[in-house]
């Protein structure tokens, strides 16, 4: 990327993003569906004017236009319960899974298949702790720094977490394997990892799974998998479909832009999902969530645009961080870690005073001097870099 393009990267905002900058919520949705251009003054989708929210890894382009259309179509049916398995069927078709919807008696299914829906992937991760924890002292193995949802729940129940430090900012599978024994309940792998954005290659993941005892559940959290640009990358779905001790956890919150709708799912052996389903009430997903997720799953244009935006912004960030003399970790996700090489907290506060929010990696992951920055729109990303440059210059 040249200096000219770096300063003015992505002159044409990704299709769909420009239609969402300065309208009330309802008009914003209509504009997104119609593809009309609106005021491009700085405004992230779903936040107040002037706010640059690049702290939570949300999709800056907003929800899939097809998802919005789908929700608008079914609003007249809001008075009815929605129990159709069309979302599960769509997920199965998307990933080539052999899936038969479970039989139902009244409201609840009598059995659970290999696809389990949830109110966001967070519900799946929380339910794993509830389902597999039995006695105080039960053990799991996880990487650090990583997302940490299962680990926090496990410790709250009185369990023991063996945290294995990352090696070269990615999972140290050899180190994690050494912590596994016959009494281990679970191993948690976040791939791509949050907060580093690094990935575990499929062959290494498969070898690790084959090496652990079959009694140990291997959880693969793939919340950001759709952003991976590495052509050699393979997901864990085939492993979850063919092994009885692997679960692949997914979400519609990230590339599909449905974070506020709360839809996630697990792909695993039916026995695993049956165990988890005891802690889900009828999936806990609304009519709107189901139809939005189903529509977003086949909105390939929105997915391509979101993925390309992430690629372009990360390249822009890399060049700007290098120009500022900062360190960073190359990411296969929708965020980046940057090393400010000084106390990051006052810089975070200075950014916040300018209505720019980033994630405090020191407070959350004990990574002193680091912040995590989510991909934003062209304008949001340039605003962040300009502010960061001014703040760093003023602190020198």
Give an overview of the whole structure.
- This protein is α/β, with parallel strands linked by helices and 396 residues long.
- The chain has 2 domains: 3-64 and 300-395, Aspartate Aminotransferase, domain 1, CATH 3.90.1150.10; 80-297, Type I PLP-dependent aspartate aminotransferase-like (Major domain) (Aspartate Aminotransferase, domain 2, 3-Layer(aba) Sandwich), CATH 3.40.640.10.
- It is built from 15 helices and 15 strands.
- The protein has helices at 3-7, 25-34, 65-74, 86-95, 121-132, 149-156, 173-178, 202-211, 237-242, 270-277, 287-297, 300-323, 344-353, 361-365, 378-395; strands at 52-53, 104-105, 108-109, 115-118, 139-144, 160-165, 184-190, 217-221, 246-251, 264-268, 327-329, 335-339, 356-357, 359-360, 370-374.
- The strands form 4 sheets. Strands 4-10-9-8-7-5-6 form a 7-stranded mixed beta sheet, with helices on both faces. A 4-stranded antiparallel beta sheet has the order 11-12-15-14. A two-stranded parallel sheet has the order 1-13.
- The longest helix is centred in the C-terminal third of the chain and has 24 residues, at 300-323.
- It is globular, with a radius of gyration of 21 Å.
- The model is unreliable at 10-40 (pLDDT under 50).
Give me some keywords for this one.
396 residues, alpha/beta, Aspartate Aminotransferase, domain 1, Aspartate Aminotransferase, domain 2, 2 domains, seven-stranded mixed β-sheet, four-stranded antiparallel β-sheet, globular
């Amino acid at each position: 990327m040249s200096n000219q393009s770096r300063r003015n990267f992505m002159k044409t905002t990704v299709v769909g993003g420009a239609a969402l900058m300065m309208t009330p919520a309802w008009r914003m949705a209509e504009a997104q569906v119609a593809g009309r251009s609106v005021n491009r003054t700085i405004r992230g989708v779903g936040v107040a004017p002037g706010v640059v929210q690049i702290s939570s890894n949300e999709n800056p382009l907003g929800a899939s236009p097809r998802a919005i259309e789908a929700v608008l179509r079914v609003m007249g049916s809001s008075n009815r319960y929605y129990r159709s398995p069309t979302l599960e069927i769509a997920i199965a078709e998307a990933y080539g899974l052999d899936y038969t919807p479970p039989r139902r008696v009244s409201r609840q299914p009598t059995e659970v298949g290999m696809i389990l829906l949830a109110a966001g992937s967070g519900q799946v991760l929380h339910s794993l702790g509830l389902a597999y924890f039995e006695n105080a002292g039960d053990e799991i193995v996880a990487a650090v720094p990583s997302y940490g949802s299962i680990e926090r729940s496990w410790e709250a129940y009185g369990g023991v977490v063996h945290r294995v430090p990352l090696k070269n900012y990615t999972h140290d599978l050899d180190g994690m394997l050494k912590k596994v024994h016959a009494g281990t309940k679970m191993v948690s792998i976040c791939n791509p990892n949050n907060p580093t954005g690094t990935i575990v290659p499929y062959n290494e993941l498969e070898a690790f799974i084959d090496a652990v005892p079959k009694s140990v559940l291997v959880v693969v959290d793939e919340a950001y998998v759709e952003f991976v640009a590495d052509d050699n990358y393979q997901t864990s779905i085939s492993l979850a479909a063919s092994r009885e001790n692997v679960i692949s956890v997914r979400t519609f919150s990230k590339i599909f832009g449905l974070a506020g709708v709360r839809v996630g799912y697990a792909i695993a052996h039916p026995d695993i999902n049956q165990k988890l389903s005891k802690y889900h009430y009828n999936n806990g997903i609304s009519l709107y969530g189901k139809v939005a997720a189903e529509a977003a799953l086949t909105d390939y244009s929105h997915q391509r645009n979101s993925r390309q935006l992430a690629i372009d912004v990360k390249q822009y960030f890399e060049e700007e961080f290098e120009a500022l003399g900062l360190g960073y970790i190359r990411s296969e996700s929708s965020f980046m870690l940057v090393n400010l090489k000084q106390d990051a907290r006052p810089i975070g506060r200075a950014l916040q005073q300018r209505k720019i929010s980033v994630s405090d990696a020191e407070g959350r992951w004990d990574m002193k001097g680091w912040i995590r920055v989510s991909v934003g729109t062209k304008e949001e990303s340039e605003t962040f870099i300009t502010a960061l440059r001014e703040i760093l210059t003023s602190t020198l």
